[in-house]
Amino acid sequence: MHCYLLLLLSLLSFDQFKQETDSVKVKQAIVNSPDTTKVFGLLRLAELSYASNMNAAKAYSKSATQLAEKTHNTKCITLAYLQEGSRLWSEKKTEFAFRQYHIALEYAIKSGSDQDRREAYHQIGTRYSENGQSYQAIQYLYQALQLTNPDHLPNAYAYTLFELGKVNAGINNYPEAIDYYKRCSDFTEKSLKDNHLRALSNNGIGLVYDNQGNFKSAIVFYRKAYEITKREARLEELGGNILGNMGYLYSQSGNTNEAINCLKADLAIASKYKNFSSVLSTSLVLAKIYSKVKDVKTTYYYVHIADSMQKLVNNPSIDFSICRNYAYIYENLGELDKSIGYFKKAFSDINKFYSPKNIDEIATMQTQHRIAFNQKELELLKKSKQLDEANFQKVKRNNQLLLISLVFLVVVIVFVFVLLRQKVRSNTMLSDKTKIIAEQNSLVSISNNRLQEVNRQKTEIIGVVSHDLKAPVNRIKGLLDLLSLDIRNRDEYINMMMISINDANNLIQNLLDNSSLEEGKSSLRPTEFDLVTLLNSIIKVSTPQANYKNISILTEFQVGSLIVENDKLALTRVVENLVSNALKFSPKNTGVTVKLELTHNAHCVISVTDNGPGISIDDQKRVFKPFTKLTATPTAGESSTGLGLSIVHKLVALMHGSIEIFSDFGSGATFVVTLPIQVPKQAA
Question: What does the alpha-carbon distance between residue 75 and residue 69 come to, in Å, rounded to a whole number?
Fold first, then answer.
């Protein structure tokens, strides 16, 4: 806003405002100035008063707007309404701010100035982005970009490119986001030499690749962004944020040493600049890393820092993430009582902040805002039509005066010509605005449909979480009560609580797996491992669940060892889900059989057979769809989200395999997974 104000002042040859920033000098300068100049002076006074005296800023801003209306200078009016919109936005009066912005855009269009229109489009697009309305933001920012000459306004051009990259990244439109970020980075390097914006652009590209699961590309751009920040001392805080991104990514990929180095550097910089939120999140990640390697002293050191920062930040909306991290940290340290306590608090925060009622309220507010926006557009169209009609009447009166001094025939011809030209112009403008309204209504309709689908999916997922997490949480609560009354059976109760915690963890993992697979973020990462050892370890982990129902897990392996190259994590999730389902649907005192066989065409066959109620023909047709509830139910009241087999089906397809079901209703079921054997090169 300040840069735009100075540019307009230079056009009016009012150079004093470009050099004088003291409010007293500005007041003296505008005492005997024309109204147009006073408008810019009042806007400058409003800017200078924002930080120290908000009431004075309001008064200057309103005075500027009122005086601008009197001048009938569209440039003045445009700038005044933009300034008023910014003031209302800073006061969090979102709806009123948007009204002022759109009035400014109306005057900018009438002025015919590309510069005025560009500034209005850019500010409206930026505000829509900040308000979470990404599709509207893209529409206005793109209009601003089209009107920006990179030679005349290089800063505005670069920042518009960056905003478009950020908005597209926010709606997972990754190719467009990367394109805008790269254009911004290249332009700032060649034309602006702006290291701050260039570092932000490369960091944005790194975040996009990070979200896509492309570790190598993400690290390349994070490092590039960090190297740019090292060139200027003022970019040290930004460099710390980038180091935090790198550290978290290293921790996710298992590179512990690099993760610790980056995160400690980020923590030092965040502490220096008193960025408490960053200190909190970085301390939690460091505590989690050290808890995994059982470094108790260092873990508690960073937990203590995180506790101190949480008291300063005091943001209830992030309590779920913090409690979940604490639960995992104490679980790694073996302090089960504290871990269970934080898990219970985390689940409580889910219901508090993400209940279906809250989601419906948010959706209603967004819909009401779109309706209000459309009504405002219609009002602007009516007002424009009234102005056109007033102009038409003015021309008509002028033509009537000409009749006195001109020959009757000439006057009639001129009048008809002017009348037809004005009518065509009015019809053309009305047609153009009607098309704009139709396009905007189409965008609103598309956005509403997407919002309804997202709300439906969120409601369905939250319903599953609320229902299926209730059982393990209630079991844990009941066992905690029993533990306080009967300490003699402590080990048995703790074992049963661990089974319930594993149920809850499996539910959360299935939800995360399903989300990653739906969004296409999952990709295979092949490693070498012994398939027989993997199957035995999964069976060993499942033993407590089997013992709880006195179920025997039998194995029939055709080989004693089989070294393969595949995605170990994906295959683990497949077998874990199949074994867990077999145990859930098998009655007590029965058995489950896990087989491994080799075929002549370099494939391996893994089958899991249970003695449950079987799967009907109708259920077999839909068993691999997400959130499917089968006719048969778990035999001991276990939770079942209907996601496990859906995830198995997607993961097997990702590994180029196949899965089949063999079952007669009432006599058990067998799931058969066939996978190609990828023999390691050194073993081939």
Answer: 11
